[in-house]
Amino acid sequence: MFCRQCEQTQHHFACTTVGVCGKTSETSALQDTLMEAVKAVSLWCVAARQIGTVDPQLLHEANKWTLQATFSTLTNVNFSDEAIADYIRQGVDLQQQFQALGLSVQEPQLANTNWASIQDSIEELEEYGHAHSLPKRQAAMGNDDCFSLNEIGTYGLKGACAYAAHAYQLLGTFDEEIMKDIHEVWAKLASNEADMEGLLQNAMRVGEINARVLALLDSAHAEKLGAPEPTPVRMTATEGKAILVSGHDLADLEALLKQTEGKGINVYTHGEMTPAHSYPGLKKYPHLVGNYGTAWQNQKFEFAGFPGPIVVTTNCIQIPRRAYKERLYTMNEVGVTGVKHIGSDRDFSPVIEQALEMKGFPKTVEPAKYHTVGFNHRAVLPLAGQVIEAVQRGALSRIVLIGGCDGTQWDRNYFTNLAEELPEDTLILTLGCAKNRVIHSEKLLGATLANGMPRVMDMGQCNDSYSAVVVASELAKALNCGINDLPLSLALSHLEQKAAAVLLTLLSMGVKNIRLGPSLPAFVTPNVLNVLSQNYNLMPTGDVQQDVVSIMEGK
Ligand code: FSO
Ligand code: SF4
């Protein structure tokens, strides 16, 4: 295997024997095959849209499959060889339906791969993946810098597909323009052409597509569940039977809340589900009692200690310990061999039965602790006047956004230290599971600015990154300046491909001076990094004290 798609990759080089995430060489090879199938189906979708007369049902199925199959290959999503092989087989079926239409296609060699002849066994599907591994594709392109740009586009587009899959979960429909663009970019990424300029533009196009996906997801959340509002969330346990929900998918949580109504079961959020408490359509359920645990990387201990079943709706899942495997349930694109999977009918009966059989929490923890979530752009923009006034009076020196992923590495403490070392007249916005590096800080707990506004405002899941885009754009408009002229700095903690998509979105908007850490991605070559530094002043996180000085100087 050779996988370097995420920040935790071995020795900041690549996982070559087994993934740091636990992914086996076999699963990795199957995922390589699946991604070749995604590109092949995308080539057919591009050709089909060009003639414009293809059965809409076939395109709908291809859209759905593209998003879900891609999502299954993100870091910490699917460790089940059977599930990945099923996605490949569905892709082969789609490809054959397109082939029967007699379309003409770019990259005919890939689009016309005779998958049918190799899909009899999982071993054959793996073999194909080994033959199309990253080093082989890199050698075929023959230019490491171009391949690096191809990888940047690939990982960013994986993240955008995951966000689009979330939007589909909520809406049940696709934005056809977005899907057309996603398929066109996969088709471009299928090419071995070492076209530096074209691949750089392609990466920025991924960022621009992802901006539209995030906007769609943002409106889908608000349309289905109401506008998020600042809401204190109980962070301590309540006596009684319990179910824990992790991942990002709010539609799944809503379905579980409906099915558990009146059953005497308390529902808790975990990790990236925490912002769920801010939605009127979810917080109206009194049995959504609070949050349990912290970020995804602590799940092995936290799930083991939870006295009820656990549902993981989307990323990030880790290969479970025996201590809780029997009460773990996956959904959607998530999969682990031997773990029960809730189907698309969202029938939670087995989860509910198990929760009722278990004891739950023996007593309510007192005193209770609370953390406020819900500073979505809809809640922050009404405060824009206060923010601008505070900036103009000199009462607010800078706004610092700390977003992205959390993870196990000790050097992610950079983000905690940065938040704690920033002067007291700075406002800290958090996003994604990186928030966990900030919200548990005793030093920042309950801190306020001179005008009484909270010093730390959490804008939501990484899925809510659109909030940062809206707030920055609106503040720039109100102050009649460019985004880069705002007293705003960004520090991104990246790990997986959703974070890559968000980074490309920010770059495509022309946002400069982003600090990226805790280390730079292994797939970025020195030459490509030079281009990104020159064009966007993208820089690695450094020494906290020095970075605080530079941030306060607007650098
Ligand atoms: Fe975190 Fe995981 Fe949301 Fe990521 S839970 S690390 S950017 O998958 O998706 O923020
Ligand atoms: Fe390694 Fe990350 Fe790939 Fe897992 S997803 S195999 S940790 S690079």
Summarize the structure.
47% of the residues lie in helices and 11% in strands. It has 555 residues and is α/β, with parallel strands linked by helices. Strand 12, helix 20 and strand 13 form a beta-alpha-beta unit.
Task: Lay out the secondary structure.
Layout: H1 25-51, H2 56-71, H3 81-99, H4 108-111, H5 122-131, H6 134-141, H7 144-171, H8 176-189, H9 196-225, E1 231-234, E2 241-246, H10 250-260, E3 265-269, H11 280-283, E4 288-291, H12 299-304, E5 310-312, H13 322-325, E6 328-331, E7 340-342, H14 349-357, E8 370-373, H15 377-380, H16 384-393, E9 398-404, H17 413-421, E10 426-431, H18 436-439, E11 456-458, H19 466-478, E12 488-493, H20 497-508, E13 514-517, H21 526-536, E14 539-540, H22 544-552
Parallel strand pairs: 2-3, 2-5, 3-4, 5-6, 6-7, 9-10, 9-12, 10-11, 12-13, 13-14
Antiparallel strand pairs: 1-8
The structure holds iron/sulfur/oxygen hybrid cluster and iron/sulfur cluster (SF4).
Pfam families: Prismane
InterPro entries: HCP/CODH, Hydroxylam_reduct
GO molecular function, one term: peroxidase activity
